[in-house]
Amino acid sequence: MWALSMKRELYTLIQKFRVNKYVAPISISIQIPKADALGQERLKIVSYDLMVFLNNRRTHRRNPDFLIHDGVYHAISRRTISHVLNYVYHKANRLENFQYILTFNEDEIDFNGKNNDQIEKLKFDLSDYIIAQLSDDQEKTLFKRFF
Following DSSP, what letter does each residue of 60-99 receive, concatenated? Predict the structure, then answer.
């Protein structure tokens, strides 16, 4: 009898979850001027992730020591990207032992120093922190082959 009761309660809980699976118990709202633009919407993601990640590092929580942003900087202005990267660089010098892993398309950030305006805004040499630089050339893909 007890097992049947537990089964019914579990079934009811699952049904409630299915109905309300998109309803969070809390609501977080991030306000950024001109947030109707795609880049500003993506900046909200970056801001929230960095806030949670850096707070976890600051309070020494037992979470992964890295944050990965794969393509999230697409449509964010180069000036804003520079500001974010400088902020993370500053935090990395104050907080120890973490990695911020990013992916960019070649048109999203200047890797070769051709656009001096952006490079001057960075407080560090970006090339010192590039671990892998991949491209559409088969020899420069991640596994040196196309899938």
Answer: T-SS-SEEEEESTTTTS-HHHHHHHHHHHHHHHHHS-S-E
Q: What is the chain's length?
A: 147
Residue at 147 is within a domain: no
Query: In the chain, which ranges are E strands?
Result: 66-70, 99-103
How many domains are there within the chain? 1
CA 113 to CA 127: how far, in whole Å?
Answer: 9
Segments forming the whole domain that contains residue 62 = 31-133
Prediction pTM value? 0.71
Percent of the chain at pLDDT exceeding 70: 72
Task: Decide if 93 is inside a domain.
Answer: yes
Q: What is the pLDDT of residue 18?
A: 53
